Amino acid sequence: MERTLCIIKPDGVQSKVVGKVIDRIEQEGFTILGMKRARLSKAVAEDFYAVHKERPFFGELCEFMSSGPVVLIALARDNAINHWRTVIGATNPAEADDGTIRKLYARSKGENTVHGSDSVENGILEISKFFSEMELIEQK
Ligand code: CMP
After folding, report:
1. At residue 140, does pLDDT exceed 90?
2. Of 23, 74, 103, 130, which is the most exposed, with the fewest CB atoms less than 10 Å away?
3. What does CATH list as the number for 2-135?
């Protein structure tokens, strides 16, 4: 079973689509290993998105991700990385396929409702930033 980190971003929490995203997670056959609501500090957001630090949108991204509460969800499923990325859709909601979470709920490229890890290694690494192994329960 692969693991991926879902973050319901501040716009998703503010728009009250947390329940809809969790419903979709369950419909898509993921196991929720762990879940918590959190408010990321700017420093935590900067560490999490360090790979983008040279990009022009880095400041805006970290500002936004620390602007309000998020929901962190550790997910497991066969092919979790690709499956979740297909379910959430393209970064830019204007380019996302119909029925994807970003097409349905996202406001813009930056305020795009949900995060998904981009590789198996990053799925493990990103989950470990927010959850201890004891908080990750594989039992269904
Ligand atoms: P995500 O895939 O979760 O991780 C990187 C994030 O950078 C991405 O979601 C977007 O929210 C954000 N991002 C990418 N491109 C832009 C952009 N042009 N302007 C603002 N934010 C962006």
Report:
1. no
2. 23
3. 3.30.70.141
